[in-house]
Amino acid sequence: MNPLARTLTGMAGGWAASRVIGLAAHLQHSGPGAGSTSKAKKLQSRRSFTRNAALGASLIITAELAVGTVWLLWPNKTGAFGGEITIGETSVPEVQGTPFRYPEGQFYIVHTDDGVQALWWKCVHLGCTVPWVAGQTQFICPCHGSVYEYNGSRISGPASRAMDAMPVTVNDDGSLTVNTDPSAVIMRDEYTPAAAVPYPA
Ligand code: FES
User: Is the minimum distance from the CB of 43 to ligand 1 under 6 angstroms?
Assistant: First the structure.
């Protein structure tokens, strides 16, 4: 359920709860013994009931709103860098197709005959963001000129190894789940076919 729906559900729940409390109190005060009290006592009792019901309803709605607001504002790591990100099948490039760039996860999806990889766009030299240069079909770091192949292998420049990769899982529906936790990143000197995850044709 999305945060807005949760907030609205919470508000509806608070309203319903206040109605239940109000109804219960009303039934209690309209019982058989109520007729024996004086008019003044009845009036006072009704006022007290109304005040308590209104107070109870206000407290419940306020609590629900507070919970809904916290849910709404709480950072959601799903789909953001540091967590797991799922990429739909339609975003997976064809074999040797233009890398799919996913800024929120800081990776590129590349697809070779060996399978798919999620390449962290952070240059292994000093950490600059490495763009894909379509005209040269290479990743070329703008900072000091490190050059990487489509599969992440280092070609030249001060970088000491291949681009780092993020663990990828191929799901049954053809989507990919990428683990963008930096502590899970795979460092390798060079690309090897075993580094790619086979992807169904
Ligand atoms: S940071 Fe990329 S080559 Fe230096």
Answer: no
* The token pair that represents 155 in the structure block: 């070609």
* Cβ of residue 128 lying under 6 Å from some atom of ligand 1: yes
Residues of the chain with pLDDT under 70: 1-43, 45-46, 48-50, 52-78
- Return the number of other C-beta atoms located less than 10 Å from residue 62's C-beta: 11
Q: Rounded to an integer, what distance in angstroms lies between the CA atom of residue 183 and that of residue 120?
A: 12
Atom of ligand 1 nearest to the CA of 145: 3
Report how far ligand 1's centroid is from the alpha carbon of 125 (Å): 5
Q: How far is the CA of 147 from the centre of ligand 1 (A)?
A: 9
What does the pLDDT look like over 80-135, one tens digit per residue?
899 999 999 999 999 999 999 999 999 999 999 999 999 999 999 999 999 999 99
